[in-house]
User: What shape does this take?
Amino acid sequence: MGTDWGATVQLRMPYVHKNFVVEGIAQSSFQRDEGIITILGKQHRPILSRRLNLFYGAGPHLGWSNETDSEGQAIKGAKGISGVIGGELTLGGVNLSYDFKPAVNLSGGSKTVYTQSAISVRAIILKRGDIFDKKKERERNRDRKKRRRAKEREKRGKGRFEFWKKGNDR
Assistant: This one.
């Protein structure tokens, strides 16, 4: 069992890069009276298919603490930079991932460097392209309809108005 618990939300950002994700993490410790919020930019690299990925990224974190140090002084909330590296597998509507997340506190916190790891299970609410790719989807549908109509016209024959020719009795 781990020492922290948390919640995470991810959003794909295809306008930045095809496999770029912004992730927000809120976590709190079971052992200490502190918590941290992290915003990560992550790049995913598919292995074999888009369902199996390696990822890496970094971003800022901001924490709070109700702890005191050995001299009785209040420990300030952590402010710093977090990194992440890991892997994930998506099956159906479920995403399973393992990640390693080192964090460097530039100010505050009880330690300068933290290392954390996590196993995450996420439900996929919206699939790839449900939010950002509406324009591309409309263009694809428009092109698909054009191709379908062209095939139908070709199947019927180009001279459908030439009713006097043999084979055009429609």
User: Anything to note?
Assistant: Residues 134-156 form the longest helix (23 residues). The longest strand covers residues 49-65. Residues 129-157 form one domain. The chain is about 15% helix and 50% strand.
